[in-house]
């Protein structure tokens, strides 16, 4: 209920077709692994807001029908994917080897698109090298 209440307060979005140069820019950024830049490109092409689920998606279906067609059917959990019994103990001493130098070295050797953090490898390298004492404190 809370989500629907918040969404009612948002403006409804309108989608504008991407022009060819924006489409090429989006494709180029995705191929280079710059997901955050590609998403920024998409954000500049739309006005934001909540998409009307009953609107036509351009193929004669509603947006809701299009989303539901992409949702895979549920399946039972395979028994061999579950852990049974006690979980092996992991000694905390393993994590003692993680220090500032290791974090910095790993950040500098990263390459590729953003993961869970939403920050791609070039931004991690910049944060570890470009801000003097703040970079040292981070790593």
Whole-number mean pLDDT: 78
Count of helix runs: 7
Give the overall shape.
extended
> Element order, helices and strands?
HHHHHHH
Brief account:
With 139 residues, the chain is mostly helical. The chain has helices at residues 2-9, 20-31, 35-45, 63-70, 100-109, 121-129, 132-138.
Can you walk me through this structure?
- This protein starts with a helix and ends with a helix.
- The chain is mainly α and about 140 residues long.
- The longest helix has 12 residues, at about 20-30.
- Helix content is about 45%, strand content about 0%.
- It is extended, with a radius of gyration of 22 Å.
- Helix 5 packs across helix 6.
Q: Which key features would you list for this structure?
A:
139 residues, mainly alpha, 7 helices, 0% strand
Any chance you could write out the topology, listing elements then pairs?
Elements: H1 2-9, H2 20-31, H3 35-45, H4 63-70, H5 100-109, H6 121-129, H7 132-138
